[in-house]
Specification:
It is a single chain. By secondary structure, the chain is an alpha+beta fold. The chain contains 18 helices and 30 strands. Helix 3 (about 265-280) crosses helix 17, helix 5 (about 300-315) crosses helix 7 (about 345-355) and helix 5 (about 300-315) crosses helix 17 (about 715-725). The longest helix is centred in the middle third of the chain and has 25 residues, at about 400-425. GO terms for molecular function: GTPase activator activity; zinc ion binding. It holds the Pfam family PH. One of its GO terms (biological process) is intracellular signal transduction.
């Protein structure tokens, strides 16, 4: 069995955030898991009520303690200001199995509470001649907070008991090793607490608090000796500002704990589902029918995604969607509202496009989206929103009329729309075969359901209702959420994108005049929209004109690629044979390689099977907080490390996530690593002098980000569907004895045959 833990969070927006001297802020959010930055949202400029709408899912170790959301104010001239934070503990999330959704007040960020890391202690009470002796051996600490400008700390430990204090210091390390024993006299029957505090020593300013551990002495007598790693706790003794004075943050957060069993445990369920999909509606009442009729809006998106991923893994995604189309079309429906609701069929097709067609979407939209961002042209067709501005060359300024602004805007929008429709028209051969096959089935089913001459456009609209309204248009409006851009659009660009998305929606509806009745100011765009309808119709006809498609290869040759800066060290190796400069890296299912430029001859590579760890590097090592290290063995079996710098925390974690997923099945992954570099004769992190010595930090192989290009995990999706179906047992009396037997009990162990209760 494989325990899994994940957090899905959606940072919606903020309100009443205090402004800077200019009366506004440039807010962004940083999401941290146990004080480790995982995600940074884009900055929303000049606002006190930002909207981000960014969603992330992080898979992590089940032993995490809390997730925190920091609201920051970006400043180009100085360090970014911290506005406030929201912290949610693991226990709190566990109390909301369906997730938490709502507004939470920001709290003040107190440096004495921003602690992290663990300390290794051995504590025992020993007999003595006059009195007992309390012996506390402080061995080491790891992952301490970085308090100094060099990205490190000068930690000293302060051990206090019964009014007596002893100290010891280690310079320039977040992974200090003290290995010192402190002794105190303990009277017979004495109570009290042993307090172990960690501080950052500073010569000029006051010392910074790094955390503490408090142990009850009477309880220690039962532990002879007691040794282990203890999580450092904050100091909560200071008064706080009134709640709500710093603003609030709207969040959706859900914790998912699950146990994934071996594949054989899910075979009865998977085989049953596959049989139903192959049989189609004529097979009678089935689990798919049950899901279609009983799944609520609250969990429909999640069920749809699990179904799509499970059947993609079985090579039956097209057949699943075809069955859902038939079930939807069998219900009473009107041609003009077909597939416009959030039914299971609609949600499944939407999820399918995001999983199987994201690369296709990028290829079609990216050139036009990038052009809109780069040109930043003013585009507005609504007279009530038109801004009159001065135009002309120096000395010949004149004021544009409203008509001139609209005419110019119409030309810009027509240019963007024409470019986009042309890209779509050329894209049919590049659309994944399984996506074309799904659209072909949809096109055919709708044509059979509405064969009348007056409904000839309905089968085209059915395709565009997904392709344009649910896929292309949302990506045009918010390209950041579809990974088309790294930042949100400014106000001017956002308005242009909104108008372009609206135009694509109207074209997708196949009736250019439809927009005129609702928004008369779109009239100047009508000729272009009518031409667009004809081009869209021709494109759909070509898109669905395909024979039976081959199987989908979700895991394409290149998993991730992009430019990274390589830091050269004294070590030798395939990734360190070039000068220190920016190179183009490519991660495939076989190796991590680099070249001088995209498409040029490969200069070096590391086979994935030889990678032992992919981890972050301390900021002080290279003067940057966005450096990762790849620990591997060369062809001769010698250990080596490559250091690669990313441009931001998002890129860093995306690369780490991709590498960890690609190497997840390596049998010799490291359990610990050195967060620093080996310079001179010692490691910069823990000051060890043995280069091959055991690492001082715990490896984070289990920490990854979910991405649309992730490898399929059919067992995970089967487990989630099993849990959902198990909750519907009350509705299963109508589905037959075979289905009830499959789902009324948890799966059995493949060897012992015993019920595995924890799976559900």
């Amino acid at each position: 069995c494989t325990p899994r833990c994940s957090i899905r969070s959606r940072v919606c927006g903020g309100s009443r955030a205090p402004g800077s001297r200019t009366g506004s802020s440039d807010p962004y959010c940083i999401v941290k898991i146990d004080n480790e930055p995982i995600v940074r949202t884009a900055t929303v400029w000049k606002t006190l009520s930002p909207f981000w709408g960014e969603e992330y899912e992080v898979r992590l170790q089940p032993s995490f303690h809390c997730v925190s959301f920091y609201v920051m104010d970006e400043d180009a001239l100085s360090r970014d200001d911290v506005i406030g934070k929201v912290s949610i503990t693991r226990d709190t999330l566990a109390e909301h199995p369906k997730g938490f959704s709502g507004w939470l007040s920001l709290s003040e960020v107190d440096p004495d509470e921003e602690v992290q890391g663990e300390i290794h202690l051995r504590v025992e009470v020993l007999p003595g001649e006059a009195a007992r002796r309390l012996c506390c051996t402080v061995l080491e600490a790891r992952d301490l907070a970085q308090k100094d400008r060099n990205g490190a700390s000068d930690p000293f430990v302060r051990v206090r008991y019964n009014g007596k204090t002893q100290e010891s210091v280690v310079k320039k390390s977040c992974y200090p090793r003290w290995n010192e024993t402190f002794e105190f006299e303990v009277a017979e029957g004495a109570a009290g607490q042993l307090c172990v505090e960690v501080w950052d020593w500073d010569l000029v300013s006051r010392n910074d608090f790094l955390g503490k551990v408090v142990l009850d002495v009477p309880a220690l007598r039962a532990l002879q000796p007691g040794e282990g790693w203890f999580r450092l706790q904050p100091d909560n003794s200071k008064p706080r500002e009134a709640e709500g004075s710093l603003g609030a943050l709207q969040l959706q957060v859900r914790l998912r704990d699950e146990t994934v069993l071996p594949s054989s445990c899910y075979q009865p369920l998977v085989q049953l589902l596959c049989q139903e999909v192959r049989a189609g509606p004529q097979g009678g009442v089935s689990l798919i029918t049950l899901l279609d009729e009983t799944t609520t809006a609250e969990c429909r998106q999640e069920v749809a995604l699990s179904l799509v991923k499970l059947f993609l893994g079985q090579g039956l995604a097209k057949e699943l969607l075809d069955l859902l189309f038939e079930l939807e079309l069998a219900k009473p429906c009107e041609p003009n509202t077909l597939f416009r609701s959030n039914s299971l069929a609609s949600k499944s097709m939407e999820s399918f496009l995001k999983v199987a067609g994201m690369q296709y979407l990028h290829a079609v939209l990216a050139p036009t989206i990038n052009r809109v961002f780069e040109e930043k042209k003013y585009v507005e067709l609504d007279p009530s929103k038109v801004e009159i501005k001065d135009v002309g060359c120096s000395g010949l300024h004149r004021v544009q009329t409203e008509g001139e602004v609209i005419e110019q805007s119409c030309q810009h929008l027509q240019s963007y729309l024409g470019e986009l429709l042309a890209a779509m028209g050329r894209s049919a051969p590049g659309c994944p075969a399984v996506v074309r096959g799904a659209f072909r089935q949809l096109f055919r089913r709708v044509g059979q359901r509405f064969p009348e001459q007056q409904h000839q456009n309905v089968k085209f609209i059915a395709v565009t209702s997904f392709l344009c309204l649910r896929f292309f248009s949302p990506a045009i409006m918010t390209p950041k959420l579809f990974h088309l851009r790294e930042k949100h659009a400014d106000a001017r660009t956002s308005r242009t994108l909104l108008l372009l998305a609206k135009a694509v929606q109207i074209v997708g509806n196949m009736e250019a005049a439809a927009g005129r009745a609702k928004e008369a100011w779109l009239a100047p765009l009508q000729p272009a929209l009518q031409r667009g309808v004809a081009r869209m119709k021709a494109f759909i006809a070509e898109l669905v004109d395909v024979e039976e498609p081959g199987a989908l290869a979700l895991q394409t040759l290149v998993i991730r690629e992009g430019p990274l800066f390589m830091h050269k060290t004294k070590a030798k190796g395939p990734l360190l044979s070039s000068s220190s400069k920016k190179l183009h890296f490519s991660l495939t299912s076989e190796a991590l390689s680099f070249a001088k430029t995209p498409g040029s001859k490969q200069s070096g590579s590391i086979a994935l099977s030889r990678i032992r760890a992919a981890e972050k590097v301390e900021e002080k090592s290279f003067g940057s907080s966005h450096v990762m290290q790849i620990v591997y063995v060369d062809e001769a079996g010698r250990p080596d490390t490559a250091y690669l710098q990313c441009k931001c925390v998002n890129e860093l974690n995306q690369w780490l996530s991709a590498l960890r997923k690609a190497c997840a099945n390596n049998p010799e992954l490291l359990g610990s690593y050195h967060p620093g570099v080996f310079r001179g004769d010692k490691w910069s992190c823990c000051h060890q002098r043995d280069r091959a010595g055991l690492g001082c930090g715990a490896a984070r192989h289990g920490l990854t980000l979910r991405d649309w290009s992730d490898p399929l995990e059919p067992d995970v999706e089967a487990q989630r569907l099993f849990c959902h179906l198990h909750g519907l047992r009350g509705a299963m009396r109508c589905v037959g004895a075979q289905l009830c037997r499959t789902l009324s009990c948890p799966p059995r162990h493949p060897e012992t045959g015993t019920w595995l209760q924890k799976a559900w």
